Amino acid sequence: MNKEQKSAAVEEVAAQIQASEAVFAVDYRGISVPQAAALRERLTEAGARFRVVKNTLTLRAADQAGAEALKDVLEGPTAFTFVTPEGGDVALAAKALAQFRREHDLLEFKGGVMNGEPLSAEQIAAIAQLPAKDVLHGQLVGMIAAPITGLVRGLNALIAGLAIQLRQIADEGMVPRGPGAAAAEAPDGPDPAEADQAAQAEQAEEEAARSADDEETESSSEESAPAGAEAAGEEADETETPSEGENE
Predict the structure, then answer these.
(1) DSSP result, the chain
(2) Confidence band, pLDDT 50/70/90 cuts, at residue 246
(3) pLDDT tens digits for range 146-158
């Protein structure tokens, strides 16, 4: 590899470091070419790329990318797994490395970086125990949706209960319903207020008629009483006055 090729490789690795969400460093001693090809397929499914680069070139790329933490793991044969933010899954990539390690007893974790922060070998192993991104998203959506669903149900129940209570209060006459409610409930029936007014007017007319009848009765009694008294007086005069024959 000539100088220009080395410079191009450094530029490419530095760009990969800067563009990656996470970079895992492993010791690749003992891995065969077929095994490396199978591992690359697993990591591709997780949105990651497995690459072996000479330590001297990686040192220059780490300096150029500002990833000082990667320089501390560059002892012995080192391979890198670059997990891209677009379509990459950090947990799935770590799981693929951990599974390959258990199956073949190869690829010791050495460390790495994630979002610019250094990672230890133990932290990479812990990341491998996390659920995949899709699973975490589903759990998060479930956690968010559950309280919202309960809130909506609670609000609906509260509104329904309030409506029932208001209807009961209106039925008991504690609040006026207004003309719209009365018309809706009894559109064909008479207005209660008008019915009361008509009854009161009818009662007043009956009382006035009874008063007029009483006055006429009293007037008739007064007229008949003097006439009877005069007739009785005349009869008494005739009875008490003696005839001229008897006096003689």
Answers:
(1) --HHHHHHHHHHHHHHHHH-SEEEEEE-TT--HHHHHHHHHHHHHTTEEEEE--HHHHHHHHHHHT-HHHHTT-SSS-EEEEE-TTT--HHHHHHHHHHHHHHHS--EEEEEEETTEEE-HHHHHHHTTSPPHHHHHHHHHHHHHHHHHHHHHHHHHHHHHHHHHHHHHHHTTSS--HHHHHHHH-SSSPPHHHHHHHHHHHHHHHHHHHHHHHHHHHHHHHHHHHHHHHHHHHHHHHHHSPPHHHH-
(2) very low
(3) 566 666 666 677 6
Percent of the chain scored above 90 by pLDDT? 43
Per residue in 196-233, pLDDT tens?
Answer: 555 665 665 566 556 555 555 554 544 444 444 444 44
Domain residues of the chain, as ranges?
Answer: 8-130, 131-177
pLDDT of residue 185: 47
Contact 81, 128 (CB under 8 A): no
CB 118 within 8 A of CB 83: no
Report which of 46, 56, 47, 45 is spatially closest to residue 13, judged by C-alpha positions.
56
CATH topology of domain 8-130: Alpha-Beta Plaits (3.30.70)
Q: For residue 100, is pLDDT > 50?
A: yes
